[in-house]
Amino acid sequence: DPEGQNTGPLQGREKGLPPLPPLNVVIIIVGSRGDVQPFIAFGHALQRRGHHVRLATHVVFRDFVLDQGLDFFPINGDPAELMRFMVEHPDLITFSTREIEAKQHQMMEIYESSYQACITPTQSAEYRPDVIIANPPVHVHCHIAEALQVPLHIMFTMPWTPTDIYPHPFASPAALSLGNSRSYGVVNEMVWLGCGPLINKFRKEVLGRRKIQWGSSLVYDLKIPHTYCMSPALVPKPPDWGSHIDVVGFWHMESVVAFDAVTEVPDLLQFLEAGPPPFYVGFGSIVVNDPLSLSERVVQGVQRAGIRAVLHQGWARLGAGLDVGEHIFLLDKPVPHEWLFPRCAAVCHHGGAGTMAAGLSHGKPTLVVPFFGVQ
Fold first, then answer.
1. Cβ(158)–Cβ(228) under 8 Å?
2. CATH code assigned to 24-247
3. pLDDT exceeding 70 applies to what percent of the chain?
4. For residues 252-261, b (16+ Cβ closer than 10 Å) or e, as one string?
5. Tell me: the pLDDT tens digits for 141-156?
6. Tell me, which fold does domain 261-368 have in CATH?
């Protein structure tokens, strides 16, 4: 449990092993707020055990990370644009050559800034990580770890290791037809076909390493440790995963800075207190092609059901420009699920890992409206 309160040096260590010395830990995350938030909890746990944590992620999450008391390092890339691209290409196979070429510059910036996160000095001293933690979309995590000769640990919110039990989250119907386990190879090979030349350019020009012929299965061949921060009650560990892979449960963030609803969202607080608990409806970082149509359908559903609702506008700006009536509150800023969900009757969302974890942890009836991938 990343938010456990035992801070003893032997916590998590086998009996008889010496305590870990303070480590420099770099955590590199590419993705949405839902991808970043679990690592806030993990970073807090590492800090309590005496380690220094540098969390590297997109600039848009700078204040989110700093407000939670962690060191922040900016990596490039627009997560909203990345999400739009994933929604338009959910199987990771329908990329055209033109689209891949258009993303070359952005991807190289992500790769280079991920490396800088591992070598840029602090204001007072040189910096070198003792361990790198990254999620799979970073792509170059294993190449950076190789160049710096430091351990790497992959952590993620969804299954990303081949198994006969679950298909790859982004597998196309064609890949699924080959079976669950082989779907991982198909997706990884397509990603390598699109990004492999750029990764090799990064290896040669930035890291000074030789090029490799095929890197789609490198993480698996090297048996790099994986930790999945998802509940084994919801997603049990498959029997064909080795001992270097674990499923440890959801990681819940406990804010260092207390959320003051009276100051932050007085209008929302007034809405919540004015009637019965509402339904929460929100699709997080999902970017949709026709937000107006989706907004209208949500509003019509709420009206037909005769309920109250909090509609989180998210990156799609749901409800913008609509007269939603007095029974729907348009939420235009992030509010901690840990504060909001206990005040709601039920939750309807996109199936993102963080929102799913919060809704289930608070025992709320949950309706998932999936858009792509693991959802």
1. yes
2. 3.40.50.2000
3. 88
4. bbeeeeeeeb
5. 999 999 999 999 999 9
6. Rossmann fold (3.40.50)
